[in-house]
Amino acid sequence: MTRPRGTRPSPGAGPGTGLDRLALNQATTERWTVAEAVDGCVRAGIGAIGLWRRQVAEAGLPESVAAVRRAGLHISSLCRGGFFTVTDPALRAESLADNRRAIDEAAALEADVLVLVCGGLPPGSRDLAGARRAVADALDELAPYAQQSGVRLGIEPLHPMFCADRCVVSTLGQALDLARRYPTEAVGVVVDTYHVWWDPDLDARIAEAGDRIASFQVCDWVVPLPADMLLGRGHVGDGYIDFAPIAAAVDAAGYTGWVEVEIFNERVWDAPGDETLRTMRERFAAVYPVSS
Fold it and tell me: Could you tell me the pTM of the whole model?
């Protein structure tokens, strides 16, 4: 597979701006199946979708590939691989095997990137340095397999509040330190506004990332945070993130790919899916105004 990753698929389209870059991350319409999400994108005029492995497994991988291809959509990402920090040898072997399956799925889907959430501290552990070494060791094993499969891995740093249970990679700088040990086309980084907006070094790290940026995801930071902090996200414009400067920095770094809206929020999930996509389009247009 030689198709370049993280770039818009339309020949000669150039970097462009506007709604033509909008992609739905399937997490935003959690209640929809793959087929329903694909049909919703078609109705809303959204050209790309980021799929999640659970829904793909429920629909069947061949059926998911066929549904997306019939609709003429692009697959901007597959979520997710990762969770590398287990210490039990049997569980570590199981994690690596599952990540190889995720790479195989991303290859079959021709997804631009397989997003990696690297895992938190093992239960009862306070060894943060050791957990980060485990992430690096897992990448050493998986990156060559991904490259041979034509799949780009995208390391996603998560907000520090998730360091204990979900991801010991907390900053874009840490993700870059891991990614730059491999060829750019093999391993990149994911810039998710929800996770990185707070970082005082963000502009510099985005510029440093350059063509390592494999995916750009957006949603807003809303307060008060719910009991399940993972669900404390909102539509663009609902909260505290100043999107335009971050989007401008990502564009200036050379990223011309799809921009996924990825929202984890029970209220958003409970809303009719078509209404959610309409809101997505309206809010996205404020960040990426259509060129005249």
Answer: 0.93
Q: How far is CA 170 from CA 176, 182, 213, 226, in A?
A: 11, 20, 16, 21
CA–CA distance from 142 to each of 99, 148, 179 (Å)? 8, 10, 12
Tokens of 27: 């997490």
CA distance 110 to 1: 8
CB 209 within 8 A of CB 171: no
The span from the CA of 270 to the CA of 287, in Å, is 25
Q: Could you give the CA distance from residue 281 to residue 292 in angstroms, rounded to a whole number?
A: 18
How many angstroms separate the CA atoms of 285 and 17, rounded?
A: 10
The label of the residue with tokens 């087929």 reads 35
Sign of the torsion angle spanned by Cα atoms 183, 185, 187, 192: positive
Query: Phi and psi at residue 156, in whole multiples of 5°?
Result: -105, 115
Residue listed under structure tokens 């963000």: 202
Which string of DSSP letters, residue by residue, matches 126-188?
--HHHHHHHHHHHHHHHHHHHHHTT--EEE----GGGTTTTBS--SHHHHHHHHTTS-TTTEE
Residue-wise pLDDT for 65-123, tens only, equals 999 999 999 999 999 999 999 999 999 999 999 999 999 999 999 999 999 999 999 99
Q: Which domains are present in the chain? A: 39-281 (3.20.20.150)
Measured at the CA of 215, the angle between CA 11 and CA 105, to 5 degrees, comes to 85
Q: Which two tokens stand for residue 98?
A: 């599952």
Rounded distance between C-alpha atoms, residue 6 and residue 245, angstroms: 20
Cα–Cα dist 101/103, whole Å: 5
